[in-house]
Design goal:
Structural class of chain B: mainly alpha
Helix content of chain B: 40-55%
Distance between the termini of chain B: 60 Å
Largest sheet of chain A: 5 strands, parallel
Oligomer: heterodimer
Order of helices and strands of chain B: HHHHHHEEHHHHHHEHEEHEHHEH
Number of strands of chain B: 7
Radius of gyration of chain A: 18 Å
Strand order of the largest sheet of chain B: 3-4-5-6-7
Shape of chain B: globular
Largest interface: A-B, 31 and 36 residues
Structural class of chain A: alpha/beta
Strand order of the largest sheet of chain A: 2-1-3-4-5
Strand content of chain B: 5-15%
Largest sheet of chain B: 5 strands, parallel
Order of helices and strands of chain A: HHHHEHEHEHEHEH
Number of helices of chain A: 9
Helix content of chain A: 55-70%
Radius of gyration of chain B: 23 Å
Distance between the termini of chain A: 25 Å
Number of strands of chain A: 5
């Protein structure tokens, strides 16, 4: 039945997915199996997004289904769930910019793809990135921004990280609709992305693990 | 609230009603009306020109747009109209508090930009809204320098679910009532008392009068109207400045590039009512309600776009497009949810002799074929991150296209990079007319040297294209 759950989530059948989850929980299956199936479904969604078969609408819809499934399963879990994480990503929308939708999508996708993500929120000053790199020890730092004012804020953030002597300890990716190779060079980042799956691909590439 | 319906909704198709479908084909006099509107714009009747040369320059520039739009003959040169955005504020080195609260400083910044760069067209400072007006009403849809943001931050939208999915039917039943008594109380703190306003079609018999007016006698509703009056006074002061700047810049020979505003019905729902997550998931969860709501918003968007053009004798309302961009939804979803009512808005405006100026923010490469289904010579499609060669070959056959110097280039490139890009853009999109040279988005953050290089490049290479 977990196969049917994978199908239902990955093809946006909300009611079916929730009904199956309910039935699975009643059948006393190990709740972890439901979460594993959900992860497999999200991997399929991610692949279809990369292939251009799925769009933001499907990412958000499957995310909304996943959230409900997780909430149903949570009370049934015994103790803390320890899953092996691929690696750590620190992320935030840079100083001046208060947009969070794009960043939230990236956080969600990194999370379902097995990364440990620390989200610093919006309008994050460079100093806070530096402080959090020290504290969280991420391999990857993601700077998000929608507005053009983010270009200089990103550049300043990278410089501040550099000055703190932490530049070589992290890979830096910038993300947003207005990012390009040229902006990446200007900012001094290692890579850029225009959509959420690009962030996942970069993190996988840098941190490794399939 | 549970939905109550007179007519059942079909599961798959459009709204099931017997009313004649409007705005499918343009009316027979659309062409004539457009020509009349262009003649009104060309006549420049109410403008006090500084010199006879300014007047001649103004007319020449309107003619460039007329030729570019109508696709009958190529304009004598490529018209230059970068999207000003908030660039004049940065260029004049004033901060956001000054821009939104000191109308005189805003006016000077705008004049300085137009004097120094002299693009062919004037872009009004109307998008730099008066902070005081928003403050008086306790506007919650945006944050700005007077409301949580710093002086270096431009105003920014606050993404939220301002209408719940269960409320679609209320919106569909009565959009005006919904906005007045439900939506406004949510987005304007000071207008919360409007929740008590009566629904107007309920007032039509003698015993219905007293209960309808009782709310107007309450302290709260009186206060809401008082706040509206204060906001109105403030907005009038700001508007007087706008009119002064407009008269001054147009008097130097630069026509306004657009007048008024409208939106795609799907974006009205998606941007301002349901939010991105809400509207994108509604396509799966509430498809019929979403489609019907878009239909109900459509006539309002036609009237909105036509109103300012009629008032000012202009012809092009600005219509920024958001959630139909590449990546947001599939081609099928675009054809099902986004395009049908946007197309009706386009046809409705064309019927009035108006030229919709459709500003496609982000990518639109997947949409070029679908959006080509429009009457020829009646629109401007203005692109951001689009392959302009393909745009020229597709929608460019039926519509004037505009764009698309990238902001990333203007903000982070060199003047040399800009010149190279502009030259290639002119060669690709400019051949045989039907093209307005512009940027892909409002120019905030652009380096002045790059803006200068851009304008110089068009003057140089765009003369004979």
């Amino acid at each position: 039945m977990t196969g049917r759950l994978i199908d239902a989530i990955s093809s946006m059948k909300e009611k079916e997915a929730l009904d199956i989850t309910k039935a699975l929980l009643e059948s006393k299956i190990d709740p972890m199996e439901i979460l594993d199936a959900s992860s497999k479904a999200m991997e399929i969604v991610g692949k279809r997004f990369e292939l251009g078969e799925y769009f933001l609408s499907e990412l958000m819809m499957s995310g909304a289904i996943l959230k409900q499934v997780s909430e149903m399963v949570k009370p049934m879990l015994k103790g803390e769930v320890r899953t092996k994480k691929r690696g750590k990503v620190l992320i935030g929308t840079v100083k001046g910019d208060i947009h969070d939708i794009g960043k939230d999508i990236v956080v969600f996708l990194l999370d379902v793809n097995g990364f440990e993500v620390r989200d610093l929120g919006i309008d994050v000053p460079p100093e806070r990135f530096v402080e959090q790199i020290g504290d969280f020890q991420p391999q990857v730092v993601g700077l998000s921004g929608l507005l053009t004012l983010a270009y200089d804020a990103m550049k300043h953030t990278v410089q501040t990280i550099q000055k703190a002597g932490l530049r070589d300890s992290v890979k830096i990716m910038i993300g947003g609709g207005q990012m390009s190779t040229q902006v990446k060079e200007y900012v001094g980042a290692d890579a850029f992305g225009n959509d959420g799956m690009a962030a996942v691909a970069l993190a996988k590439d840098w941190i490794g693990g399939q | 609230m549970m939905a109550w319906r007179l007519l059942p909704l079909r599961k798959t198709g459009s709204v099931d009603n017997k009313m004649k479908e409007r705005w499918i084909d343009p009316s027979s006099d659309a062409e004539k009306k457009q020509e009349e509107n262009f003649q009104t714009w060309l006549s420049a009747a109410d403008i006090d020109f500084e010199t006879p040369e300014a007047k001649a320059g103004y007319k020449e520039r309107v003619k460039l747009i007329k030729d570019a739009v109508q696709l009958k003959s190529a304009p004598s040169r490529i018209p230059i109209s970068p999207s000003t955005g908030h660039f004049p504020i940065e260029y004049a080195k004033i901060n956001w508090h000054e821009a939104m609260y000191d109308y005189e400083k805003l006016a000077q910044a705008w004049e300085k930009y137009h004097d120094d760069f002299a693009p062919d067209f004037y872009h009004s400072p109307r998008t730099v809204v008066p902070g005081k007006v928003l403050e008086i009403l306790d506007f919650k849809l945006y944050r700005w320098v007077g409301n949580d943001l710093r002086e270096d931050q431009e105003y920014q939208f606050v993404e939220n679910e301002y209408m719940k999915a269960e409320e679609y039917q209320d919106l569909i039943d009565d959009p005006t009532g919904f906005f007045l008594t439900v939506y406004f109380p949510r987005i304007f703190g000071e207008l919360k008392p409007l929740e008590k306003m009566p629904l107007l079609p309920s007032v039509h018999e003698i015993p219905l009068v007293p209960p309808a007016v009782i709310p107007f006698g309450t302290k709260e509703v009186k206060s809401a109207f008082q706040k509206l009056a204060e906001a109105g006074d403030e907005a009038n002061d700001w508007h007087a400045m706008i009119m002064r700047v407009s008269a001054s810049i147009m008097g130097k020979g630069f026509p306004a590039f657009s007048a008024g505003f409208s939106k795609a019905p799907f974006d009205v729902i998606g941007d301002s009512l349901r939010g991105t997550q809400g509207v994108l998931t509604d396509m799966f969860r509430h498809p019929d309600e979403l489609k019907e709501a878009c239909e109900r918003i459509t006539p309002f968007m036609i009237k909105l776009g036509a109103a300012a053009c009629k008032a000012t004798g202009h012809i092009m309302p600005f219509i920024p497009l958001h959630k139909g961009a590449d990546g947001f939804m599939s081609d099928e979803q675009f054809r099902t949810f986004y395009w049908p009512t946007l197309r009706k808005v386009i046809i409705g405006l064309i019927d009035e002799g108006i030229v919709p100026q459709l500003f496609a923010e982000g990518g639109y490469n997947q949409r070029l074929e679908v959006i080509s289904d429009i009457p020829k010579g009646k629109t401007v499609w203005w692109f951001d991150t689009v392959d302009m060669a393909r745009a020229k070959e597709t929608v460019g056959k039926v519509s004037c296209i505009a764009g698309n110097v990238p902001l990333s280039l203007l903000c982070t490139g060199t003047p040399g990079d800009v010149t190279t890009y502009c030259r290639s853009l002119i060669e690709t999109a400019g051949k045989d007319g039907g093209f307005i040279f512009s940027t892909g988005a409002g120019m905030q953050g652009a380096k002045p040297g790059n803006v200068r290089a851009m304008i110089k490049a068009v003057k140089e290479y765009g003369a004979s294209a």
